[in-house]
């Protein structure tokens, strides 16, 4: 799932209707070193483009968000 890896919401605009299984080799953004090592996998954005031919674009877009501000556990009888 890209949302956690991209560290922001991701909206699918690829237009692909089928489901695909793929293996993507990348270095998480949170683990990116200050200096790039040629032996380490690329960052997420580069890996998506090089390995799958997809591109993540940063855009401002309205998205639906559900906010739960309170929840209580209701006791049940055994």
Helix count, DSSP H or I runs of 4 or more residues: 2
Count of the domains: 1
Q: Main beta sheet: strand number and arrangement?
A: none
Molecular shape: elongated
The termini sit apart by: 38 Å
Question: What are the segments in which pLDDT stays under 50 over at least 5 consecutive residues?
Answer: none
As a whole number of angstroms, the C-alpha radius of gyration is 18 Å
Helicity level, as a percent range?
Answer: 10-25%
Q: Which structural class do you get from the secondary structure elements? A: mainly alpha
Strand fraction band? under 5%
SSE order: HH
Tell me the number of strands: 0
Give the averaged pLDDT, no decimals: 81
What would you say this structure looks like, in words?
With about 80 residues, the chain is an all-alpha fold. The chain has one domain. It has two helices and no strands. The longest helix has 9 residues. The protein is elongated, with a radius of gyration of 18 Å.
Write the layout of secondary structure elements.
Elements: H1 2-6, H2 44-52
């Amino acid at each position: 799932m890209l949302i956690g890896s991209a560290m922001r919401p991701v909206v699918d605009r690829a237009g692909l209707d089928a489901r695909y299984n793929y293996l993507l080799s990348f270095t998480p953004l949170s683990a990116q070193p200050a200096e790039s090592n040629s032996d380490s996998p690329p960052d997420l954005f580069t890996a998506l483009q090089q390995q799958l031919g997809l591109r993540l674009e940063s855009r401002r877009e309205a998205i639906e968000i559900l906010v739960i501000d309170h929840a209580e556990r209701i006791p049940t009888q055994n």
